[in-house]
Design goal:
The complex is a heterodimer. Chain A contains three helices and nine strands, in the order H-H-E-E-E-E-E-E-E-E-H-E. Chain A is of the alpha+beta class. Chain A folds into two domains: 58 residues; 121 residues, 3-layer Sandwich (Rieske Iron-sulfur Protein). The longest helix of chain A has 35 residues. Chain B is 62% helix and 2% strand. In chain B, helix 3 packs across helix 12, helix 5 crosses helix 12 and helix 19 crosses helix 22. The termini of chain B are far apart. Classes of the chains: A alpha+beta, B mainly alpha. Chains A and B meet through helix 1, helix 2 and strand 3 of A and helix 3, helix 4, helix 5, helix 10 and helix 12 of B.
Chain lengths: 194, 662
């Protein structure tokens, strides 16, 4: 700002450093800049990514055992009935005393055996319905048909039949239908619990 | 590979762009004083990165905002670090902004042709402050809520448009879901968008005009630097003497900081052999890459180190969830708004007009002065005026901030408010872990159902005007001269034993300040002059009736308890006045289930009932049923639930981590 002051500058007496040294200094400067810059940027990015991928290392909440009906509610050899699964569940910070988790088809076969299917389609997870006229399960998304026993019908693009769920035999003897509800990975042949 | 890059370059021109970005000439060589703009860009980048990740976990609504932040802070993997970096970078960014501004003004970098760039910079400063202000509310905790309420109310007093403006900002007349969604959209969308746009223009203009060459101004601006350092140092030293209390902590630290800076500078000069700007020697022109970038990178490392230091050292607080019905004595804005906050306390800004002057006119004038700097600073005198003005601003900021903190350091209510917020936040954390989560209605319901938090609040509000609790009001606050028994430890063997001693009974801790001081019981205790063994037995028997939290069978076992009851029926003639063990006949308070939960609820509900004081009741109100003047009964001051909470708190019956309630 003050032009006079420029005159007071002492000229640089030192000769320029050797080109080799300049090169070396420049290389070090570049290396330090890149390493330091990379390190400090990786701190927020790394922390953020850690929070993002954390669900990969968390176990699912697993199956939930729940009473859905009494045996008498299901007519012998009758059509399947859809039951809502509502149970206590924690969703991130919220603990819901009653949270809808999904739905289950229950059917009492001629022999008295109880059959339970998760209503979620093993193809891509749409909800499967029961068509009484055709007496079959039908997924409206990709028009898959499942037979009453859950096996793949025709046509059916699903890689596997409907997912059966475990029914508690002991409780059945007491007249109650208890089912272990869980979800399975969609789109694969294998029935894999998630 | 080479061909691929050539193809990309041909279609995008990226090589030229990179060259232009990196191989900018830095006249006079790289300098430390040029790093502030880069550290700011770095801080902005960190805020964008951490902000976007926080966005993935944050939920803006009145029943989920606090809860999701709680989850980020306490449950999410490394969430505390993510939030910590975001929070502390925001604090440090304000300091970097000021340093950047100081550097620009001192080096007169606002002069032609850079006026527009200066103006954009000032606008950026205010956008950053607006982002800070909106971010302060997002956790929806007591601190953010009350501070933001003040800020939005101040927006409401802006002449002509204030009312409507406030309603638009708040999303209605009440603070709630829409306040959060609006603040969040401003904080994470509108304002950062504007920030990016302006930063682009700011950097474009900077590149257009190049760095303000410090060479001709070196000696003078070095002088300014030193004088500024000296000025800040001097102001802090004076403040340390004026505001001894507040400054106990931060002034010595700041002075240490300034000392360190000076020491580092001297060390640097000696070490480098007068190779720097204070030696006023022209340097060869440098290149932005890598000369200046190296300095920038090192400065950014220092910024990150400072951020991490605070994250680990101070942590990132979260006060209890926002509750408009629960006053918060420690409501304060963030430290950089403290000076404005403090200014509003001056009597010069009293009343409606004063408030408009203090909250709007004065700040606007200062902002206008900032904007005018490039025009004022055209001449040498003008520049001098600008630097003086800047000193004045910084000095005023320091003094007002010190006054604000000094006031708080001497304000018992403020300190108690902070302490209570900490206690309640810790308790809430414990409750959430006991319950395994937060109910869908939000964390505030946990606060309202908890005897430990809510019972204490209710006691302080409804009981402590007569009954102290360990000499305080139940929440650590001071009480005036007590006029009824101190209820800390009520129902415990020790509390009861203290009452059975005549000295104690007529003393200030029990009935000394009530009419019972001269009652039948006082006379009776004086006549009896009970032996220590008798007191031991009777207090054991009555504590057995009460069974407050922590009750355990006394050393003498059931025998001692039985002997206590025997004494009450026979030698001590207690049963002449008091109903004991279901035999109700006397005129004194029933001792059946004495100080048990049910007894206390009924007692507080209506002490004038025949089971208790009856007509002899001194001044104790009936909290559940109150007699109106026309003789009708009505609801009392409290609800049954509230009385239960007070009783639960007095008996220390609240959910604990070990699963025990009583």
């Amino acid at each position: 700002m003050n032009e006079e002051e420029t005159e007071n500058f002492v000229p640089d007496k030192k000769p320029d450093p050797q080109p080799k040294e300049t090169e070396r200094r420049e290389f070090i400067a570049k290396a330090v800049s890149i390493v330091a810059g990379g390190a400090i940027v990786s701190i927020p990015i790394g922390t953020g990514l850690a929070t993002l991928v954390a669900p990969l290392f968390k176990e699912g909440q697993g199956g939930v055992k729940i009473r859905l009906a009494s045996v008498e509610d299901l007519p012998l050899g009758g059509p399947p009935k859809l039951y809502q699964v509502v149970a206590e569940r924690t969703d991130a910070w919220t603990k819901y005393p009653e949270k809808p988790l999904g739905s289950v088809f229950l059917r009492r076969k001629q022999g008295g055996e109880i059959e339970a299917f998760n209503s979620s389609c093993p193809h891509a997870g749409c909800s499967v319905g029961y068509r009484s006229k055709e007496d079959e399960y039908y997924c409206p998304c990709h028009e898959s048909i499942f037979n009453l026993d859950g096996s793949r019908g025709d046509p059916c693009v699903s890689p596997r039949g409907l997912d059966s769920l475990e029914v508690d035999e002991e409780r059945l003897g007491e007249g109650d239908v208890w089912v272990t509800f869980r979800n399975f990975a969609a789109g694969i042949e294998e029935k894999k619990a998630i | 590979m080479r061909r691929f890059f050539a193809w990309v370059d041909d279609r995008t021109g990226i090589a030229k762009l990179t060259r232009e970005a990196l191989f900018e000439s830095v006249p006079g060589g790289a300098r430390w004083r040029y790093v502030w703009g880069s550290t700011l860009s770095f801080a902005i980048m960190v805020q964008f990165i951490t902000g976007i990740f926080l966005w993935m976990a944050y939920s803006p609504s009145a029943t989920t905002a606090w809860e999701s932040v709680y989850f980020i802070q306490n449950e999410m993997t490394l969430g505390w670090l993510l939030r910590g970096i975001h929070h502390w970078t925001a604090q440090i960014m304000v300091i970097l902004l000021v340093l950047h501004l100081v550097q620009v003004v001192i080096d007169s970098a606002y002069r032609a042709p850079r006026e527009f760039n200066f103006w954009f910079g000032v606008i950026l400063l205010f956008i950053t402050l607006a982002i800070s202000l909106t971010g302060y509310l997002l956790p929806w905790d007591q601190k953010g809520f009350w501070a933001t309420k003040v800020a939005t109310n101040l927006a409401g007093i802006i002449p002509f448009i204030g009312d409507d403006l406030q309603k638009i900002i708040v999303g209605g007349s009440d603070y709630g879901h829409h306040t959060l969604t609006r603040f969040f959209a401003l904080h994470a969308g509108v304002l950062p968008g504007a920030l990016v746009a302006l930063v682009v223009v700011h950097i474009y203009l900077f590149r257009r005009h190049g760095i303000t060459e410090a060479k001709p101004a070196t000696r003078a601006s070095a002088l300014y630097y030193w004088s500024l350092l000296g000025f800040v140092f001097g102001t802090l030293t004076i403040l340390a003497f004026v505001f001894e209390d507040a400054t106990k902590q931060w002034v010595p630290r700041s002075i240490c900081g300034v000392f360190l800076a000076i020491a580092a500078r001297i060390f640097f000069l000696v070490f480098r052999g007068k190779d720097d700007d204070s030696a006023a020697r022209p340097k060869r022109d440098g290149m932005f890459w890598p000369d200046q970038i190296l300095k920038d990178a090192i400065a950014c490392v220092a910024v990150m180190a400072a951020v991490l230091f605070f994250v680990f050292r101070q942590g990132t607080g979260l006060t209890p969830p926002a509750d408009p019905s629960q006053p918060y004595n420690a409501a304060r804005p963030d430290w950089y708004f403290m000076s404005l906050f403090q200014m509003l306390k001056f009597s010069a800004f009293e009343g409606a007009v004063g408030l408009v002057i203090g909250a709007i006119v004065v700040p606007s004038t200062l902002v206008t002065a900032l904007f005018l700097m490039p025009l004022i600073g055209k001449s040498k005198t003008g520049h001098w005026i600008n630097v003086t003005m800047l000193y004045g601003l910084i000095g005023g900021f320091l003094i007002l901030t010190a006054m604000g903190f000094n006031h708080d350091a001497n304000d018992a209510e403020y300190k108690q408010g902070v302490a209570n917020a900490h206690t309640e936040a810790d308790r809430l954390k414990e409750l959430i872990s006991i319950k395994g989560g937060i109910p869908p209605e939000g964390a505030l319901t946990l606060v309202y159902e908890d005897p430990k938090i809510r019972g204490a609040r209710l006691y302080a509000a409804h009981c402590s005007s007569c009954h102290p609790h360990g000499g305080k009001d139940g929440m650590g606050g001071e009480v005036k001269e007590p006029s009824a028994p101190d209820l800390k430890g009520v129902g415990s063997k020790e509390w009861i034993a203290g009452l059975l001693d005549h000295e104690g009974y007529v003393g200030p801790k029990y009935f000394g300040n009530t009419k019972f001081r001269k009652g039948k019981m006082a006379d009776h205790l004086l006549d009896l002059d009970m032996l220590p063994e008798e007191i031991e037995a009777v207090s054991a028997a009555l504590a057995y009736e009460a069974k407050v939290y922590g009750y355990s069978t006394p050393e003498g076992g059931q025998e001692l308890i039985d002997s206590g009851f025997d004494l009450m029926f026979e030698d001590l003639e207690c049963s002449d006045c008091h109903g004991i063990d279901g035999e109700d006949e006397g005129s004194g308070p029933s001792l059946t289930g004495y100080m048990s939960r049910d007894w206390m609820v009924r007692f507080i509900g209506d002490p004038t009932h025949d089971d208790f004081y009856g007509k002899k009741n001194d001044r104790m109100p009936s909290f559940l049923v109150a007699m109106q003047e026309d003789g009708n009964m009505s609801d009392g001051e409290l609800s049954r639930e509230e009385v239960e909470l007070i009783v639960g708190w007095l008996r220390e019956e609240w959910p604990r981590a070990d699963g025990k309630v009583r």
